[in-house]
Amino acid sequence: MERVILHDDLTFSRIIHGLWRLVEWNMSKEEVVHFIESCLEMGVTTFDHADIYGGYTCEERFGEALALKPSLRENMQIVTKCGIKLMNPNRPPQKLHYYDSSKNHIVTSVDSSLQKLRTDYIDVLLIHRPDYLMDPTEVAEAFRELHATGKVRHFGVSNFTPSQFDLLQSYLDKPLVTNQLELSAGNFDLFQNGTVDHCMLHRVKPMAWSPLNGGAIFTSQTEKHVRLRNTLMDVAKEIGASSIEQVLYAWLLMHPAQIMPIAGSGKLERVALAVDSLSLQLTRENWYEILRASIGKDVD
Ligand SMILES: NC(=O)c1ccc[n+]([C@@H]2O[C@H](COP(=O)([O-])OP(=O)(O)OC[C@H]3O[C@@H](n4cnc5c(N)ncnc54)[C@H](OP(=O)(O)O)[C@@H]3O)[C@@H](O)[C@H]2O)c1
What we know:
The protein has about 300 residues and is α/β, with parallel strands linked by helices. It has a domain at about 5-180: TIM Barrel (Alpha-Beta Barrel), CATH 3.20.20. The chain contains 13 helices and 12 strands. It has helices spanning about 30-40, 55, 60-70, 105-115, 135-150, 160-170, 190, 195-200, 215-220, 225-240, 245-255, 270-275, 285-295, and strands at about 5, 10-15, 15-20, 45-50, 75-80, 85, 100, 120-125, 150-160, 180, 205-210, 260-265. Strand 3 (about 15-20), helix 1 (about 30-40) and strand 4 (about 45-50) form a beta-alpha-beta unit. The chain binds NADP nicotinamide-adenine-dinucleotide phosphate. NADP nicotinamide-adenine-dinucleotide phosphate (NAP) binds near residues 158, 211, 213, 215 and 218. NADP nicotinamide-adenine-dinucleotide phosphate (NAP) binds next to strand 12. Keywords: NADP, Oxidoreductase. GO terms for molecular function: oxidoreductase activity. It comes from Brevibacillus laterosporus. Belongs to the aldo/keto reductase family. Aldo/keto reductase 2 subfamily.
């Protein structure tokens, strides 16, 4: 599996696996171990979490599996996130869900993630969403402390605009290693508004969340999704892909920003399809054909 260099001492697998939906898969601890081992065998070594996934339970499920087989940890990179505060019966009461990038929240969230994931360190911590009240001085202090204590090795962001990214970066000693963004053939906005260009400008490799539109691409009957699905089927036939999801992955992988798609399926055969898409080759014409199906018109 191709590796992507995010920093001198950090590489990710080109295909990442995301654990947002882990609790929905109803796997036993042993099945989670098997799932992780199978991903590693396929070369998928980077796993994406967030404190809030599964109503604050997914990290724990993953950690229970790691506790059964601790040797797995050294062969993987763990990404997790903080900064969203969800209303949840197991959390202190709050009136609504909101964002918190205060130093106290970041540091306590990391301590909780470490405990749940049963690990001593997080490879990359992301601020999950831009907090309108973000004080970059506080975030920088939190990052400095977490790095100095060895709890977090690298930092990044998710869903940040270019200016939000630059603002935070200007206060940090270390480079932000990624911006995790919603990128897919069905969601072209961030290619158009300069967010992906900004990553390329700063040599920052984006992680792509919901690369299959969260599964909507397979079921949605909107005009756009039907049009896109038909085009994806035509292209799949043309390039010898076994499914439209492979074409969706190949579309992201062809972009020169070195996008790392995060596969979100709980089915190993679907993770394997993502991995196999690395060997597919789209032509520029295919790429633009898919873009046209997404935006509903030819480029000018
Ligand atoms: N930073 C953020 O704000 C943010 C937001 C959302 C997600 N994420 C990250 O991105 C990861 C991936 O997101 P995602 O789960 O939305 O990714 P996705 O790959 O776009 O969607 C996964 C969903 O599609 C379904 N699916 C896949 N192939 C299918 C097929 N051939 N037919 C029907 N359904 C199919 C999967 O079901 P099966 O499990 O049954 O295959 C699963 O429910 C998450 O796990 C999380 O780590 C980050």
